[in-house]
Design brief:
Blueprint lengths: L4 E6 L2 H10 L3 E4 L12 H10 L4 E4 L11 H16 L4 E4 L10 H11 L3 E4 L9 H11 L3 E4 L10 H11 L4 E5 L7 H8 L3 E4 L2 E5 L20 E5 L1 H17 L1
Parallel strand pairs: 1-2, 1-8, 2-3, 3-4, 4-5, 5-6, 6-7, 7-8
Antiparallel strand pairs: 9-10
Helix pairs in contact: 1-8, 3-4
């Protein structure tokens, strides 16, 4: 029987609880998931850690945008890696690139040292690197345990051919964690097409704000995004993927 790992990306206590209830094996905790995720607040992490019993990995990303960081940004990343690891995180999710699109091995090594014996995932900076196979080997030599990737496409289904090649190249030395548009509608085909045994999803739904009074002419963020939309992980969406993976595992 195969064991498929299901990780959920969440940015609230409510979403963390829903992911665990739906059958997630592990969480990736972040802030601002709607813009791809940034480093969460330490108090959010503490609240989630108290709420769930499954492992919690923390995304360390100081800002939206690319993965080429200034010295000041890097120092913030290094301190955050150490802080979350010292405060009970099971792992961290990190990634730094050089201007030429290669993995920044020197800075990544410093972050690996800051993480100590905690699990380290290379996040989707991998999906915008210039050579995925070189980055895979660099990550392996650094001691990275997991690479989160969509196969260098916007959605993992589109990147399934590269994902299959990466799984073969990794040969079990690093887990290839398939993420980007994973859901009940495609996870079985993704598993069969790629050979991967680890999947990453958010299972988001849009909820309406509890606000009854609404100011129509003022926007606090992006004008194209409603202030009154709340994004949460849906337990049922997670459970649907969990059930499919369990059936695949039982089938061998």
């Amino acid at each position: 029987m195969k064991k498929y790992l299901l990780e959920c990306c969440v940015d609230s206590v409510e979403s963390a609880a829903a992911a665990q209830a739906g059958g997630a094996d592990r969480l990736e905790l972040c802030g601002n998931l709607i813009i791809g995720g940034t480093t969460p607040d330490i108090h959010l992490f503490s609240a989630v850690r108290k709420k769930v019993s499954i492992p919690v990995n923390v995304l360390i990303r100081p800002r939206f945008g690319d993965f080429c960081y200034t010295d000041e940004e890097f120092e913030i990343i290094r301190k955050d890696v150490r802080m979350f690891c010292e405060n009970g995180a099971d792992g961290v999710v990190i990634g730094i690139l050089k201007p030429d699109g290669s993995l920044d091995r020197e800075r990544m090594k410093i972050l690996m040292e800051a993480a100590g014996d905690k699990n380290v995932t290379l996040h989707r900076a991998f999906d915008v690197c210039n050579d995925p196979f070189q980055a895979l080997h660099d990550a392996e030599q650094l001691g990275v345990r997991t690479i989160l990737t969509s196969g260098q496409k916007n959605a993992s289904y589109e990147g399934r051919d590269l994902l299959s090649r990466l799984v073969k190249e990794a040969d079990g030395k690093i887990d290839i964690l398939v993420g980007g548009g994973v859901g009940a509608e495609n996870v079985e085909e993704l598993a069969k097409a790629t050979g991967a045994q680890a999947f990453h999803m958010s299972g988001k739904v849009t909820l309406d704000s509890a606000m009854t009074y609404r100011k129509p002419d003022v926007s606090m963020g992006l004008p194209v995004m409603s202030e009154y939309a709340v994004f949460r992980t849906d337990e049922k969406k997670v459970a649907a993927v969990r059930n499919i993976l369990n059936k695949l595992g039982s089938a061998g």
